[in-house]
Amino acid sequence: MMRRFIFFLTLASCCLSFSQNKQILYGFSDIPQSTLLNPGKLIKNDWYFGIPLLSHIHANVGITGSTVYDIFANDGIDFNAKLQNAVYGMEANDFFSVNQQLEIFSGGFSFGSSYEKNEYISFGLYQELDVIAYFPKDLAILALEGNQNNINRSFSTSQVSVAAEAISVLHLGYTKKVNDHFTFGIRGKIYSSIANINATKNKGRFITVRGQNNFYDHIFNLDLEARTSGIASLSEDGSDSNSVARDLKKRLLFGGNLGLGFDVGFTKQLNKQWSFDASLLDVGFIRHTKDIENYKIEGDIVFEGINPIFPDIGNGQTAEDYWSEIEEDFEEIFELDTTATKYTTWRPIKLNTSLNYAFGKKKDKTCNCVKEEGDYLNAAGMQLFAMSRPKRPLLALTAYYYRRLFNGLQIKTTYTIDSYSPYNIGLGMSANLGKLNFYVMADNFLEFKNIYNAQSVSLQLGFNYIFNKNED
Amino acid sequence: MQKQIIKYSFLVVAISLSLLSCVKDVDFDQADDFEISPVVESSLIFFEGQANRFLLNTNEIVSIKDSVTVEFFNSNFIVDNLIKSEFVFEAVNSISKEFQVRVDLINDLELQVHSFTLTASPSTNGNDVLSDHTEVFENDKLEALKNTSKIVFTLSLLSGETINQSTLGRIKLQSKAVFYLNIGEEL
């Protein structure tokens, strides 16, 4: 069990990761959920509702550095050799991340005073899981090699950086098309934290150096802290799977630690064909006040061994006394201090922006000419995504092509460069069958020939009911 | 139109699924082979004393004894993962007298499970004389170490001039333990 757990951690830190970049969905305004990525872009319907629990399912796993295949390939090479290669090959900035979202319900409708409705209200509730764990390279090497060949090498404990949260988000957004050139929107969010683990501000080091009085001085200088909320009560005595499920359900519906946040965005139509848009998502915080358990390891020790001062000739202190003092020091430093101090976490802020060029209108069959009215069938452009992460921001640059095949079928394909891979190809599609809208999108298609070799994989799909008054 | 949409949708989904189903051979059971073999070194005991510290009311102390209770060697982690150990001692003696340090390993029942000695040769001219000793723990000796809960050190003064207030020189002892670990199966 323990081994599997350590394994998972190793994997977690070296082999998998999810990003929250939804480059295919961004700007795909045929799909109502695209408004969650930019409230400042009008979505193309009169009103809609998401099929409960099926309207938006998103999963993304990513890992930088090594892949699952690097370590688990059934290639006859010694497993531990592969593991070592992975450890040596990765850096402390490599990470594993998971992001998952499930929309519980959502809906929206357009309204406005003019004949062309220019305002839109959207709302919903979704659950989100976000995990990121960095690879603590120094500690992995210490575990692999020990300190014998690493005298004078400082092992940093600040590389230990893990954040995990499960939350539910209730949101209400408003979009307004001010005129033909400018649209803006804002979305307010109430977060309810179901569970949170935050260990992102660790400091300290361990180093063995040549000593004065003995062979070595072992220097421990530690300042590690993990803050948790919503975890302690789940493992309390007397809690069973039923009570845990009941507890979680309550927290999903605002019984958890609460927070507030907002999204903002706009679209600027530069001319008939060129447009620029941008959004800032999840500018917000969660205040953790309930069910908190924080763990801390803090202190400094220099250990140079035991001096049996030989009480007969010394100051009366026996080696036993001497050793007990050292033992106490060690206990003090390594003892987990448990506190219940309230804390605040910031949600990872996401920035999306894109420059778009629309072209190619539908040809009119009756006159074999291009229709003056109506939308362009194609769009191409560049998108930039940035997201705050504990160590350094995640960046992704995407080039895309969008095509309306028919009125009820649109596709979008993307090429993305990010922390995970320089050649990530994504494909998405939205289809309307009557009023039922179905969309599915996935990326890293090039890696699908061997999914275990992929550094990141993401998938989104969902079903909506969409109503348009003047449908073709 | 509807038919075409359905047709294209199915095509896209089918292509995606066929791509997704491509998986090269991986074997997650390899995790069972997981093992790491770190080598850890740690300072052990040390002391330094001028010759005149071995006097008690102008009389030479013949032997001095001290002990340490350690719960480290018989801890589960060590018992499960330690495959070999070495205790390395280095003595520097500039006293014209030979010293001996006996190290007794004692178990929970106060029984001696292992014992070894190291000698620090005397100095003839007041210069430092180096002596070293490496005690290797393997097989039975390793088992003895894993039963150890107390270590007794006995410092004895052997042959050479009798120490008095004017005896010059000092003795210095340094030591470290080397732990060869193999962590895997027992996790």
Automatic annotation (TrEMBL), chain A:
Listed name of the protein: DUF5723 domain-containing protein
Stored Pfam families: DUF5723
Alphabetical list of InterPro entries matching this protein: DUF5723
Organism: Flavivirga algicola
Domain DUF5723: 39-443
UniProtKB/TrEMBL annotation, chain B:
Keywords: Signal
The name this protein goes by in its record: Uncharacterized protein
Signal sequence, start to end: 1-23
